[in-house]
Structures
1.
Amino acid sequence: MTRYVLVRLGNGLFVLWAALTVSFMVLHLVPGDAVTVMLRGRGGEGSSVDPAAADALRAQLGLDRPLYAQYLDFVWGAVRLDFGTSFATGDEVSAVLGRSLPPTLELAAAALLLTLVAGVAAAVTASLLPSAPLRSAVWSVTVAGGAVPSFWTGIILLQVFSFRLGWFPAFGEGDLSRLVLPAFALALPGIGTLTQVLGRSLRTALADPYVRTARAKGASRLRATTVHALRNAAIPAMTLFGMMVGGIVAGAVITETVFSRPGLGTLTAKAIDTHDFPVIRALVFLVGALYVLINLAVDLVYPKVDPRIVLRSA
């Protein structure tokens, strides 16, 4: 078990370093001069750039130093959660992220919880249905749900439940009612995908000999599904659920814009629009770090669900 945890920690640190390196390269992969792009973004397209202002900004960002020195400073700053100063607002990037992160975490947590509960419930329910046409209908609905983009779902939900029925507020954040529609819009594609993967694993597990033995001993189909088959069928779904975190955070960029919610999505859109590269680099690293942490947590839960994983890795 210790070796398994150390290997997973090492993998997580490597991916985190890769995300940090990618976020550092964002500023250097911009076509042309990044400083000129930022200054023109502030003054508007086609505006002239003062060479003195460009030199001052280049010195402020440390771009006049050797590349290896810039990289080492960036890594050391990221370790201390210091990503410099926002070019658009003049605030510390860490402070800007600190204001935008809680609303996004709230939305992402609600969407992930809804994805988990609804996906598992739909997969188990479909597996328990006695009629093959009914099961096929459930699978078809989940396929459609997984194929619908979150921004389209958000627009439809706004039209129906906010503007026509008036059941939920359309925009903003605050109380729980303002979280329902964006969370559902963000979760719907994940619900469909998770239901498909878990349902397929359940169908395979229900055909295994140990499930047939449990049924022969008198276990009901509900008990055989939820107690015996679900645990072994959960491994692929857990892997998928961990990978969904990155998609949920990325989807928040559009969903928060549709519902006019503050958060990392709105901050990303503004940073891209204003060419605020210090904020963009911090956002790239933050999303990568969240992805690594969630997947590391999933990896560490695997042995609790299926102890054979540790034996195979050993």
2.
Amino acid sequence: MGPRSVTLSAHDGLALHAEDWRPPADMPRRTPVLCLSGITRNGSDFRGLAERQSQRRRVVTFDYAGHGASARAEDPERYRPEAMIRDVLDMMAALHLHRAVVVGTSFGGLVSMALAVLRPGALAGVVLNDIGPEIGSDGHAWVLDFNRRDPAAATLEDCAALLRAHLPALPHLDDAGWLDLAGRTYAKGPDGRFHPRWDTKVIDQAVGAEVGPVPDLWALFGALGGLPLLLVWGEVSRLLLAPTVARMRTAHPGMRLLTLPGTGHAPTLTEPAAIAAIDAFIETIP
């Protein structure tokens, strides 16, 4: 059974989209899963995870403002991190997600850290996908540069070629995998060309250095201290570097770690090892 598509009204009236996957009615009630994507990604990145986990428990995937099927804002400041975190909190309240296992890729992992501070009782466990309390400066610059661009590509195959040429190593993807990733990254517009599934104005507001001082992310990470935690790390990631991973393990000795050799930022979570590790981790939470 597929998901229920949900449209929510944000505090300012902006339409936000989520997909609500429900397990069979005869399944025992278990802690649901909330999936939060990277800053230029959307809920479709978790389709495989949702299909698997919804056999046993509820799964909700969410499109931030300006992403996926959610509406785009006229004012770029609507994409400030604090506004998007508020949207997540409001969405959780509207969908009665009072406590969940959060799977957060990149920016979604940072949001999960913020939730641990703002509403700690809402978290039953966290999967961080290639993100930590320190972000490599080289990787940060790459995110800014690549994700500001609208390729206006003629075909989805062109989009796949663009991703292969510019994204970090994702060795598990074959030709079909790259084409699938392209389809979740770009969509055909009214002009017949393919454009990003995110508002390119998001980037400077959400991760640009010009929006103000960066908070102490180690303090946010510390708020995860009492929670079950799994870190999925692309070993050649330019955003999450080895010294940061080592310090994270010291700060949270109970943290599970899955290292994906030869993989950059961010793992797609379709890697066989990632599927196995995430499913096993979630299974430990009733």
3.
Amino acid sequence: MIVDTLKVFVTVAEQRNFSRAAEMLNLSQPGVSQHIRNLENEFGVQLMHRSSKQVKMTDAGQILYKQAKQMLSLYESAKEDIHLLRHEVTGSLKIGASFTIGEYILPCLLAQFVNQYPQVDIQVTIANTEEIAQAVHSNELDVGLVEGHVEYSEIQVQPPFMEDEMLLVSSVVHPLHTLRTVEPHMLQDQVWVFRESGSGTRAYSDQFIQDTALRVNRSFVFNSSQGVKEAVIAGLGIAMLSRWVIHKELELGELHHIQVKGKRFTRDFHVLQEPKSLGTMAVKMFIQKIRELEQ
């Protein structure tokens, strides 16, 4: 069936590797290669440049990839509409989430969703906000859940589904831990622990430092909120983190909340979608489940 061949082609294009694609599709590598050769013979052009390290798309391959994604989306939509005649929600759902959402909110949400719609095949990608936005824009993900501001004008950013409180924290032996509240100027020349660039948490921290005109004495960068949290507990510096990430450590007395006088720090969690995406029933039901968090 041509759909199967297109699925193989899209998987190879996205993985840029025949072996990884074969493993994901539960096929042999020669079988994957045969699907690609069949497509190239049908169109009379080379679709991919093969090398031992990586697969690179030709111009023709790029055109087919874009159209194949739409054709597969149409196929999934038709299949789901047919299943809906029997009151079933089926198909696949590719979800991307930034680290805070993906590690602390999404698991519980997915457990509820899967219990309600057990026939939906779900794949989850957790990365920083910038990477999730890029994946949604390139149609590698059906929906993205991110925090903070998204720069892509081509992406549909839906209204916030949740407000997140950001807290400035230190270790329980940091000099600031003895103070009930601090004025912004008391945060001058501190050592900071940051997330990497592209992270929504990093963007929020950078904006706070810019708005309060703080000088940073030294900084350390980690590519996960868990790493930042552990570094702060160990006394490496101070950091701005979501309450979702640190609420247990605060309750256990492992972290100190540095309260800035007269300030409360919040940001919004958003849903991202590619505006030209058809939006299968599985996607629609998942977004509906997200919206229940607002209530």
4.
Amino acid sequence: MPPVNGRRPYNSSRRKALAEQTRAMVLNVAEQRFLQDGYAATTVASIAAAAGISAETIYKSFENKSGLVRAIYERGLTGTGDTPAYRRSDDIRERIDDPRELMHQWGTLTAEVASTVTPILLLIRSAAATDSSMAGLLEASNAHRVERMRHNAEFLAERGFLKEGTTLSDAIDVLWTVSSPELYELLVLQRGWTPAQFATFVADTMSAALLPPRT
């Protein structure tokens, strides 16, 4: 039966979907402008104009320019899959018993995430020299990655996967290095490696540095 007043019932799911589409569109436009023009030269007004919306809409959703960068960075961390990368990483740990296969899967996931998050991390690193909000975001990003690598290193230690003499600190440092934006920048962005080559390099490096030799 139609509503008595003749109006259509409120469709909250449709409104939510439209809001998510608008948010994604704004982040896509903002990321393009930031990477093209740099952090300092990009304004909220220019992003709003390029996106065809009001600057007020952006401020309501992201507060300011640094909030936009943070949102782009956090989106990059999820990778390109439907499930966030950190959840897939934890799922891989639970499913795979062979440590070398684990490294292979982690290498593939590392390359995927690096492809989405490295460009914005390099922007943050550059802007951090003169902008305190970007310096804070860079510090938070580094701290988050250290904790994530500690999480993975502790798993390797608990499962007895680490080779003799490898400390937890050693494992964290190796995982921290291969997941760094600097390594992806050097090999993929500067030297032209493919993501597949990078994934293999990461997996082989982790295996050689952390696992016992094959018997």
